[in-house]
Amino acid sequence: MLTRRTLLKAAACAACAAGLPAVALGGGLFTQAAFEAAQKAGRPILVDISASWCSTCKAQKPILSALSKSETFKDFVMLEVDFDSQKDVVRALKARNQSTLIVFKGINEVGRSVGDTDPDSIEALLSKAL
Fold first, then answer.
1. Domain ranges within the chain, ordered by starting residue
2. Cβ(127)–Cβ(76) below 8 Å
3. What is the side-by-side order of every strand in the sheet holding 100-105?
4. 8 A C-beta contact, residue 100 and residue 64
5. Distance CA 91, CA 72 (A)
6. Which CATH superfamily is 4-127 part of?
7. What global pTM score does this model have?
């Protein structure tokens, strides 16, 4: 069943794939098309693998939200993978846990972290894609 949230996330991913500005974290549900379009464009990408029940993921959200609003990271494409419902994507990205953050610079993975809730180290992780 399609929900309003699912439709909004799909629209945000379509905008991302069309080359429009990056969406704030939580606004872009991972789709292969959006991911490949961002890679092809050479954009910096953050893939956030999270679960709604995960306390570490919840602690990461405000940090990622603040970073996504900063001038430094405004060009990032931030895509969220639901750990429970997107198992195929989780496996393809070789993630074993929720609260995994994976950073790409175009087609190249440049860093990843699991369970990190330190704002400075998350910022340093994202900086690897600049």
1. 4-127
2. no
3. 77-82, 44-50, 100-105, 108-114
4. no
5. 30
6. Glutaredoxin (3.40.30.10)
7. 0.79
